[in-house]
Amino acid sequence: MGKLIFTFFFAGALALTCAAQTESLLIGPGDLIDVEVFDTPEMGQEVRVTDSGTVRLQLIGELKLAGETPGEAAKTIETAFIDKKIMRRPQVRVRVMEYATQDVSVLGQVKNPGTYSITTPQPILKIIALAGGLTDVADRNITVKRYHDSSLETHYYLANDAEQALSVSPVVYPGDTVIVPRAPVVYILGDVAKPGGYAIATNDSRLTVLQAIAMAGSANKTSVQSHIRLIRKTSQGQEEIPVQLSEIQKGKQPDLLLQPYDVLYIPFSWMKNTAMNAASIAAATSSAAIYTIH
After folding, report:
1. DSSP H helical segments within 55-174, as ranges?
2. Is 158 left (phi over 0), alpha (psi -120 to 50) or beta?
């Protein structure tokens, strides 16, 4: 997984320019901006935004640009040129060269969660690489909370396929927070080769009964396959669903799609284990080892 993430990083860096054209962080106090006036290079300048959100530009004087995107700031400067009769048809471009807020926070299921310093927007794949990549139980649905407006979120799905993952790579800005949640888990317990919890990290996030039992190394010969039970949490409490494995294997019944945190229990041949109730089985999940489904 680590090698794949760093492959993403180098390819993702190439996509930074294109991605930055579709997303803009608002200009804020302390930012360093570059003002370029087309066909008039002597009018170009780099200025720092003051604490009050203004900049002082040659010939124009003070303008309030904080709270505007670079595109909006360019329009504001063009209007000022026209109003002051300095230029008739100015064409201005504004770029943020350095953001005052230089940290991005990466939380959740990454190998090294924490705060990382960046001074310019970066592809999300590079940010994940900085944090050491995803853990084995990471959900691939990643959320980016925007610094300038915490109510704004960008959602990104980090596909297993490299080409798909790189096709859309949103930009993370200084001050943003990247949240990688834990993947949903299903539990396969009882008389199987490898009982435990399985984090679903596949592209479609789907898992059926047959797939789950196969992931757990198949049911042992000593198991009582006629008494397999699916225990599912519902709003009314725990629901027990009998599973006719032989009928599913023969194609006489559809393969059941599991839901997050379902417990599939394959009983042992001993009578006491066959008679275990749902509460006892569900309680066993607390000590179950967690594995990853790839």
Report:
1. 70-83, 124-130, 162-167
2. beta
Q: Is the pTM of this model over 0.85?
A: no
pLDDT computed for residue 276 by the predictor:
60
Q: How many Cβ atoms sit within 10 Å of the Cβ of residue 129?
A: 21
88 lies in a domain?
yes
Domain boundary among 145, 165, 180: 180
| CA distance linking residue 281 with residue 90, whole number of Å | 73
pLDDT in tens, 217-264: 888 888 888 889 899 988 888 888 899 888 898 889 999 999 988 999
- pLDDT tens, position by position, 272-287: 454 566 666 666 665 5
Over its C-alpha atoms, the chain yields an Rg (Å, rounded) of 28
135 and 91 housed in the same domain: no
In this structure, are 88 and 104 located in the same domain? no
DSSP conformation class of 287 = G
Encode pLDDT of 236-248 as tens digits.
888 888 998 888 9
